[in-house]
Amino acid sequence: ESSNQSNLRSVFGPQRRGEGAGGTYSKNMSITVASSSSSSSSFGRLRRPHPEASRNVAFAFVAFAFATLYLLFVSATSVEAAESAAENSGDGDFDVPPSPSSSSVPHYRYYSRYPRYPPYCSTPEAMKRRSIPPLLPPGTYDAVAGLKSTKLIQAFALIRHGARTPWDDDMTCWDGYSDDEELSRWDCELTEFMAYPPATKKEEEDLATGADGPGRRPFDTEEGGDSPSSEAPLLLFEKRYDGLTSVSGMNNAFNGTCRLGQLIRSGYEQETINGQHLRDAYVYDGDDDKDDEGDDGNGSNENLAARDERMRLFDIPADYPALVRQSSRGGGGGGDGDNDNNNNNNNDGSGEASSSQQQQQQSRPKWPFDPPDLYYRVDNSERTIMSGQILLRGLFGDLLRSRRRDPLGTNPVIITHTADYWYDGILTAKTGICPRLDDLWDDAESSPEFTAMYESSDEAALLSDMMIEETGGDWGDDAVDCLMTTMCTDRTLPDVLNDYDGEPAGDDDDD
Hints:
Number of helices: 16
GO molecular function: phosphatase activity
InterPro entries: His_PPase_superfam, Histidine_acid_phosphatase
Transmembrane segments: 57-76
Region (Disordered): 1-47, 87-107, 199-233, 283-309, 324-374
Largest sheet: 6 strands, mixed
Keywords: Hydrolase, Membrane, Transmembrane, Transmembrane helix
């Protein structure tokens, strides 16, 4: 776990079409988001991490690409910040409600205090320099495999969450850390929106038969209410960790309005860029000028999917809006998509509206993220769920902004596949599921190699003496989290530690 694991890579290799992680079928793309299961499984437990081990943690964000890309996108929760919501507002767009208090919540403007930052911090400049690598020139694979042609047909993306608050309220760090207002207070402007559960089958039947009035559900309005298939907006619930701010003597773990391990604004921006990297590599929108013009961040005038047809896992036709309008006319008896939404409020109790909706749904062109084109698997941690949603918004956000609602007026839905966090041993190692993990940790930390490097070496002794004499204690178990969540958010480091001057010679901060 760290304040930032938002690097992105892509590795190509053979895989039969339809084979997903764990046997899960996804036709085009499978996206998996996970975090460490507990403090015992984080690199922070290694008292003095080897530099290479630390780099491996910092660059734990990896994308694996294999064959066709089919995405099953899951989402029961919407995550947005006020500024991003404002960008999405507009006539016919999918509007995201802003957080009323986002503009007034104090926050840090990151990456301006220190002259250089560790790769772990993933600054905006470092994020923009990263990209999905292209396929080798045509003919390269063909000559090796004896194939006539090669095309990418599926991709897997494995990611971790973006920048977050510290995950442990028992961190000691250096003297004065817990008492310092700047270091111990975290206020979060990034909030979570939740929608109510979808209607039950009985509710849909009542709507069609008029059990609560002709074609109406309880609490519906004249405009159609908050049904997911109506033109009226959904009722959303914004989640804020401010319930203790007005209670004397009580506060969250880090004071302020953040919870332990909560995704912060810089993490939002990191995952947005990661989603854009995926879009540039795999999505070609024939109606999007920026696929053919502009800068992809690597000095090119067009993105990878525009340059190389073999990378187009999502090839969206330029006439997609026309196809939507045509499907609405075919299913709704004429008129444009907006007018056809009147069918949702057929009040004669005959059930004809429901039948018309089904016909329209069957004829509507698929969203690129409709099943089985996208499969989204995530562990049940708030920061990982939010990170995945933000990444997928970066991947498909341009498409949503440029398209009107479908003829039924329904909101796009991406399904989030998850499991009970403490029983989910697929994405994150859990000692409760596999007690042998504790034995492996103990074996590793008692090994001659570990002892020689982290306990008996001159470097280990020097580091331990420095921490005790200069900072008031040996907090090596929490060193990565203490240092990175402080430096990457432009908070004050102790003078003795405020001397970072970049990576050693020969290291590349884009690795």
